[in-house]
Structures are given as C-alpha cells and as structure tokens.
Design a protein that fits this description.
Rossmann fold; binds adenosine-5'-diphosphate; binds adenosine monophosphate
Amino acid sequence: METTQPRRCLILFGAPGSGKGTQAKLLKGLLGWAHISTGDMLREHVAAKTELGLRIDSAMKSGSLIPDEVVNMLVDERIRREDCQEGFILDGYPRTVPQADLLVRTMRASGIAPVVVHLKVDYNIIVARLASRRLCSQCGQLYSVASNAPIVTESCDYCGGKLITREDDKPEVIWKRLETYDNQTFPVLYFLLGAGYPSHDFDGSDGSPQVIAGRIVQLLLG
Ligand code: ADP
Ligand code: AMP
C-alpha cells in the first residue's frame, strides 16, 4: 500500500546573525525544501513600497518586531504554495509566543511534525558578524566582508547586484535586536519544546556554513 510522506518542516531558531539565513539557503539546495524567511518577505514589501511595506518601513529599520497578525498572514499564505509540498524551512519565524501558538495549531491540523534546530552563537561574535554582513540587493545572497567576501568588492558573485548593508545591522540597532531576541523570541524555544517538538542545539560558530549544514542534513536524514 502506498503511504504519503508527511510534509517536513525545519524551524531554524537562533538570534539575529546566528546564521539562519545562510543555513536555510544551503539546506534548500541540499534538501530541496522551500526557504521561508519572514525577514526577506517583509524586506521585499519595503523595497517594493507596497502599502504594507510603507507601514512597516520604520519598524524594520529600527529593529522592532512587526505585529504578529501581519507576519502570521504572510506565513499562512506562503506555506500553502506548491513549492512547500515536500518540506519547508522556517527562518526567523516564529519569533513570539503567539506566532508559535498559531504555528503549532496549524502544523497539528496538517499532520506535520516540525524539528527545531537551535543555532547558538556568542553575542560578541554575532555583533562582529552583523557589522560585516552584506546582502545582495537583487538576489538576496549573503556575504561577510570578514569571512566570505565577494570576488569583486560590493558586487554579487552570482548576479552582479549591488551589495548593501542592512539598515538594522547598524551597531546601535544590533544590541536592541539582541535584547528583543532575549525577551520575546528565546521563550519561544520552551513553547516549542512544550509542544513536543524535538530540538537540537548546534554551535553556529563551530565551522564553515557548509560544515554546519552537513551536520544538520545528517540529523534530518540520519
Ligand atoms: P541570520 O539569518 O541568523 O540573521 P545570517 O545567515 O545572515 O544570520 O548570518 C549573519 C552573518 O554571519 C552573514 O554575514 C554570514 O555570511 C555570516 N555567517 C553565517 N554563518 C557563518 C559561519 N558558520 N561562520 C562565519 N560566518 C558566518
Ligand atoms: P531577519 O531578516 O530575520 O533578521 O528579520 C529582519 C526584521 O524583520 C526583524 O528585525 C523584524 O523587524 C522583522 N521580522 C522578521 N521576522 C519576523 C517575525 N517572525 N515577527 C516579527 N517581525 C519579524
């Protein structure tokens, strides 16, 4: 008898700068699962100056969280799309307990059992990483001018797009985002554990992104 494989869901959990986006892009290539980054979706709205983008612009720049109902609506719509049927990787969501509560209920209703990967990185390393982070304004590829610089300065290796520094990676905003993570996001980990999701800690500064991605794939595919 043919059985249908339940859709897989990986929740990449960790502080800003812990490497979630970097890992999600690598894992998408290795596993073929969709990459859902709420930060990327929100930045696209800001760049396109949509009604939502104009509304959230200043909150994004100052590193504040966007209201739960806005982010929940974007994710709910996104995970219904065809490219999520095999599996999907959540990067930067859930970030508050109400977001996690809704996710748990949605996953239960769909018969999906997510796995949590918690990327742990010392905050002093994170502050240095975010000061060095550059983002391609066209394709979203991530760089670090310290450890993963582009071949041509300020230009994306893949599409030639201009590299930018995110407004919220300015030093004065970084510590505020880490404080928000401590107060509002870290408790989400306990909520997910309480929901029965297995959670695995990885040292996000022990090795290159490729090495860390290999360890995560080994965990998921065993
Ligand atoms: P997040 O999505 O959690 O905010 P990113 O994936 O954007 O974090 O990573 C933040 C910065 O750290 C980027 O500049 C990225 O190139 C760099 N980075 C990510 N993983 C590693 C790693 N394992 N070692 C060194 N630098 C890394
Ligand atoms: P990120 O790209 O994950 O670092 O997110 C960048 C910014 O987008 C955050 O500082 C928030 O302003 C907003 N954001 C991203 N994801 C969420 C979320 N799940 N809940 C609320 N705000 C979010």
